[in-house]
């Protein structure tokens, strides 16, 4: 299971108050609407004397693209709305941004763009064309 968001300062303060009142960890978790593990972590921080309620900095890998790079991607999409993710990726590479096609898809989704595909229309056969012509001449 992955790491979840830190508790807000309000939730942490509420948990600390209930811990001082000697409620059980399960009861506190139920009252505050958080997991028992989160309550346990707050209790551990209190015992160790650490006042850090939030992690310092950002966790995880640094993003390969900036908000400016994302705007370039959006601009390219506005110029050609039917462009594929692969085409947009090649245009991005011309600006010096090397990422995978799946990253392009994730950035587009985060920017609020929906994926669309062109409607498939059946090919007109010579027989169908002849019948249409006959129908048009009748009218």
Strand content: under 5%
Q: How much helix, percentage-wise, in residues?
A: 55-70%
**Alpha carbon gyration radius:** 28 Å
State the order of secondary-structure elements, H for helix, E for strand.
Answer: HHHHHHH
According to DSSP, the number of beta strands is: 0
Distance between the termini: 68 Å
Mean pLDDT: 88
Tell me about the largest β-sheet: none
> pLDDT below 50 for ≥5 consecutive residues: which ranges?
none
Structural class: mainly alpha
Number of helices: 7
Can you walk through the features of this model?
- This protein has 139 residues and is an all-alpha fold.
- It has 7 helices and no strands.
- The protein has helices spanning 9-20, 25-32, 36-48, 67-79, 85-94, 101-110, 126-138.
- Helix 2 packs across helix 3 (36-48).
- It is elongated.
- The model has no long low-confidence stretch (mean pLDDT 88).
